[in-house]
Amino acid sequence: MRHQHLAFWRNSRRLASLVVGVFLLMTTFPASAQFTPRDRKPASGNSRGGGSRGCSSSGIPLTQLAPVTFIGKTASTRPTLVWYMSSSQDVRFRLFEFESANSVKQISKVQEIPTIIGINQLKLPSIYPALTVGKTYLWQIAIDCKNDTIINHAEFTVIKPESLSQKRFTSIPERVNYYAEKELWYEALSEALKAADHAKLGQLGANLVKDLAQSEIPTGSDIDIKNIQQRIQYLQKIANQSI
Fold it and tell me: I want to staple 58 with a disulfide (CB 3.0 to 4.6 A). Which of 86, 95, 174, 220 is the partner?
């Protein structure tokens, strides 16, 4: 009888250790971010950039890591903007505010921004006024190549931050998934990059960029399909090589 109790006790310990091990694996393994926006309001013609390889030596040009075919969202009045570079030359940064559906005005002067090879981040500098909730903006980055100038644009709207949950999240993956579910691309990617190495996307960021590539599939008949398809391929390559 004593041997049966010992065997039961040992088996119970093994089972408990297995349960704890599985629990730790589940809690430490990065959750998969899912950005599947339902509200895909088409961007204006101001955001339709070209698909040129430009100054790229790797086959991937200057690429904004943000929605381009539709208007992105942020709840921040100073969002973090992210793009990919295959060279370390400076980019020219401009910010515009929409005055009407087809009219924009530039905010502040052009800024020369130093870059690194890989993933670049820019939190909207204090030289620019805080953005206004309810308004739509366009951010532009440009570089000069040997025989060309490459210009990228992306549009976003600032929503009310009061609509977000006030709960405290215990991990970066939780925050990333929450923002992704709320369709807040800029917050989701900014949080994901906190878990990544310098100039890299990390696994969370790569998952998001793959989701972005899927969401960029054009729906309008007046969109340059070829360039958008090329952009989708670039996003997928960036996600695969920048983990």
Answer: 86
